Amino acid sequence: MSRVVAVASVVVAVAVAGVVANASATGTAEFARPTLTAATPLASPAAASPPATSPPATSPPAASSSPAASSSPAASSRATSPPAEPSPAPHPAARPLVSAPPAGTGPAHTPAPTPPPPPTSAPGPTPPPVPSAPAGPAPTPRFDGPVVRLADRDLPDPFVLRDGARWWVYATGTGPANLQVAPSPDLATLGPSTDPLPQLPGWAEPGFTWAPAVLPRAGREVLYYSVRDAASGRQCISAAVADTPAGPFVDASTGPMVCQTGNGGSIDPAPFVSADGTAYLLWKSDDNALGTRTRIGGQRLSDDGLSLVGPRPALLSATARWEGGVVEGPAMAEVGGRYYLFYGANHWDTPGAGIGYAVCTSPLGPCVNQSSARAWFATQGPLIGPSGPDPFVDATGRVRLAFHAWAMDAAGHFVRSLWIGTLAFGS
Question: What burial class does residue 397 get, using C-beta atoms within 10 Å of its C-beta: 0-12 exposed, 13-18 middle, 19+ buried?
Answer without folding.
Answer: exposed
